[in-house]
Amino acid sequence: MNGISIKYFVITIASIFVALGVGILIGFSVNSEKFVQKQFQQQLILIDKNLVELKKENDRLLKEIDEYKTQINQLGKINDTLVNAYLKTCKSNAVVSLIVTSTDYSYNDLIDFLRKNQIKLARIVKVKKSFIDVLNNKTNAISEYNPHEDMIASLALYTTFNIENSTLVKLIENRYIETNRLSGEIADTILIAGGNTLQNDTFNAVDRKVIEKLRNINDLNVIGVEQSYSEINYCEKYKSMGLDTVDNVDELTGKVSLVELIRGGNGNYGTKKEANFLMPNAFTSIDVSENSLKKRRESLLEQFKRLQSSNAMQ
Predict the structure, then answer these.
(1) Which spans are transmembrane here (predicted)?
(2) Residue 70 and residue 126 in one domain
(3) Which DSSP string do the residues of 121-183 spell out, in sequence order?
(4) Which of 71, 89, 107 corresponds to the end of one domain?
(5) pLDDT in tens, 233-287
(6) Which range of residues forms the domain containing residue 299?
(7) Tens of pLDDT, residues 20-32
């Protein structure tokens, strides 16, 4: 009897504690849910405030961007006006020939720019990949009869003096070079337009040899150019050979720099590591430019006469 009473008592007490535990758990769950809901609502209010602030900041930034775009457009118009005024004021009577040694990039935009600004183009010579193969000894279809030095010399003489010999004729006939003769005048300025992709570095095979031959012509103005996006910096190599250079001839500042070099200025301009300045900070006067051009032409004419006499004696 006593054992049964004690057992009943223990079960009763345990039931009481279980009931208390369940009640506490239910109460805690209800309070927790209210707490979570309250916190969630507070976070939503905070996020909403932040979104409002972010929208205000975004609107402010968009307004600033529009203002900057307007300023950029205005600066672009001012730059165009100044460049056009410079080109009209600082015209050059130089006669220019262009040798395109790059087989990866086109220089048609440069040719259009020169023509548009009434810079006299005498001749345009474009080197073809087949000619590079000849110079790299990958084929000897013509080199058996014409040493490399003779072929490069013929190209230099034609580009500068408009002298055509049998070697040059063979180069054209075999489509190793493409020529466009616009006038028969002596060119006092030669532009070497290079630059290639990383897989096609032909500087030593072509550019170096052509420049060496051109540098043998006294008082000839030789300028090295390339576009800003050229993978290989040929202007760095041109500079090492003593040439004036423009490494961003596709850009407005590069075009101004090029015109200044054609007029007789000096320097290495552009955006790459070999450049000393982005563009000239002083411009050659018209008198100085014309006097320099006159001396250059007189010297080149004398050399041309000697070449003619030498050819006549042969």
Answers:
(1) 6-30
(2) no
(3) EEEEEEE-HHHHHHHTTS--TTTTTS-HHHHHHHHHHHHHH----HHHHHHHHTTSEEEEE--
(4) 89
(5) 999 999 999 999 999 999 989 999 999 999 999 999 999 999 999 999 888 888 9
(6) 92-313
(7) 665 665 665 555 5
